[in-house]
Amino acid sequence: MWYWEGDIRGCYSVKDGYRRLGVMTTQQSSVWNNVWKLQVPPKWKVFLWRALLNILPTLDNLIIRRVVDVNSCPSCGLDVECVMHIFCSCPYAVNVWQLSQIQIPPIANRNFVQWAEEWLGATTGFSSEMQGRICGVLHCIWSARSAAVWDAALPGPSALLSRLHAHWTAWLDTEHRRVAAIGRLPVTAPAQATSTTPIPFSCFVDASFHRPQRAPAFGFVVFGGEFSLVVAANGPLTCPYDPLLAEAMALCEALSWLKDNGYSGGSIYTDSSLLVSSLNSVSSFRNYFVYTLLACKHLINALPGTVVCFVNREANQVAHSLSKDVAAIAIRSVWRDVPHSFIEPMLANTI
User: Fold this and answer.
1) Would residue 117 count as lying in a domain?
2) What's this model's pTM, rounded to 2 decimal places?
3) DSSP assignment, residue 201?
4) For residue 161, which phi and psi values (nearest 5 degrees)?
5) What's the pLDDT score for residue 38?
6) Mean predicted confidence (pLDDT) in 223-236
7) Would you give the distance in Å from CA 70 to the centre of its chain?
């Protein structure tokens, strides 16, 4: 008869097995318990747990498994990639930490678990809020690294931290509502999150059809303060020959990018007056166009202070040219900070 040692009933449980495994491999480091006590989204906890176990698909691990042959950091290209390099010593990560104004422990020839013990261990002086913020920055750095690998586009540190702040605020607000709903907090209690500082922007968006197949494509451009270029993008759409539907889908593409990158409180311009009026009076009749409008309105509501306005075609030439680019019907392209050469003259006239 089998008997599990350490349990009064002799029964095995995953929790006890995990505890035993932690004792054998980590000498009872408090980091392993504190990971699950962090007040952060669950996927951040799982990510940090995988990083501590060194089972993230970093290039040094992929080389061991013979998945890749070359190890060069996709974020900086200056050193081999490992967990400590990605999160601590990579120049990109260093810029993110400096911009976040979080004083992380020094590396000092530590491995990742030893470094994590400095801010997540039992004797650390870091508050639970600061521990959550560090975990969030680590997760965002990993997301940026993944974007560099799969999308060949590394987001800027400021955009990365804006996205983190938006996600962190949204999760805290949702968590407060969940706790309040089960009666642990008064419903009128304020959310723990601080208000998100809007990042002002101006976004121009358009859609076009390319002859002879009438292939649809979108294009949008985002300007920041003092009309400085933030991003320009274009790519294919999947829809029938319906100009109004294409305009709505192009707007949805621009809104999704703005939401993912933490922007709000700006103006979005389209040269379709019918689209603007349709947004203000969505029909109760359900078809694909109405569903696209509802998706747009949901995204607009997620960007407080954002409005959609009409402009004439002359004022929307940059977005229109992006949507008419012959490559737009084949592949999605994104230009950050530095525009493609074919829209540079129009940007100069716009600015």
Assistant:
1) yes
2) 0.53
3) -
4) -70, -30
5) 93
6) 85
7) 27
Coil, helix or strand for 175? Answer: helix
Q: With helix as H, strand as E and coil as C, how does 6-73 read?
A: CCCCCCCCHHHHHHHHHHHHHCCCCHHHHHCCCCCCHHHHHHHHHHHCCCCCCHHHHHHCCCCCCCCC
**Rounded mean pLDDT, 42-53:** 94
Has residue 66 been placed in a domain?
yes
Distance from chain centroid for Cα 118: 27
CA separation for the pair 208, 214 (Å, rounded): 9
- Of 105-109, 112-116, 181-185, 265-269, the poorest mean pLDDT is in 181-185
> Quick one: 202 exposed, middle or buried, by C-beta within 10 A (0-12, 13-18, 19+)?
middle
Q: How far apart are CA 123 and CA 263, in angstroms?
A: 38
Residue type, 220: F
What is the Cα gyration radius of the chain?
Answer: 24
Q: Is 141 helix (H, G, I), strand (E, B) or coil?
A: helix
Regarding predicted confidence, which is higher, 197 or 252? 252
Q: Are residues 25 and 166 in the same domain?
A: yes
| pLDDT of 199 over the 80 cut | no
Residues 224 and 292 occupy one common structural domain: yes
Q: At what angle do helices 243-260 and 273-280 cross, to 10 degrees?
A: 70
Residue 334 CA to residue 153 CA, distance in Å, equals 8
User: Read out DSSP for 155-171?
Assistant: --HHHHHHHHHHHHHHH
Q: Is residue 318 part of a domain?
A: yes
Range of the domain at 247: 202-350
